[in-house]
Amino acid sequence: MVRGGSVDRSIRRAKIFALTKGFRGRSKNCYSLAIRAAHKALQHAYRGRKLKKRDFRSLWITRISNAAQEQKMPYSMFMHNMVRLEVQLNRKILSELAIYEPRSFQALADLARRRQSKGLLNALK
């Protein structure tokens, strides 16, 4: 009986070539080079997904810091008082508030400033 398997082989090769579609040079056409290129591209994609989270967090912190500086308050003091006041807004939402709702952010900064100067009970009055 003749052994089969060419179908599996062609499907496997097609998957690799689908991953390397759009690459430059022989790495899109030559199977042995395409395997290496696809593997490396998947490694870069994996690493990039982790770096994206770091980059966005850094961006949000920078935005909040700049908005807090406009309110004459350092970032660390602002965030410390947000935690102490149990404000359940994460950095992403705070940065969006700073950009699109500056008056709301100003109100939060005022609340944080009052919390800093007078304590929790007086800040909520």
TrEMBL record:
Q: Which InterPro entries match?
A: Ribosomal_bL20 (IPR005813), Ribosomal_protein_bL20_C (IPR035566)
Cellular-component GO terms for this entry: mitochondrial ribosome; ribonucleoprotein complex
Q: Does the keyword Ribosomal protein apply?
A: yes
For this chain's UniProt record, which GO biological process terms are given?
translation
Q: Is Glycoprotein tagged as a keyword?
A: no
PANTHER family linked to this entry: 39S RIBOSOMAL PROTEIN L20
**Molecular function (Gene Ontology), one example:** structural constituent of ribosome
Q: Name one Pfam family in it.
A: Ribosomal_L20
* UniProt similarity note: Belongs to the bacterial ribosomal protein bL20 family.
What is the name listed in the Swiss-Prot or TrEMBL entry for this protein? Answer: Large ribosomal subunit protein bL20m
Q: Which domain of life is it from?
A: Eukaryota
Q: Which UniProt keywords apply?
A: Ribonucleoprotein, Ribosomal protein
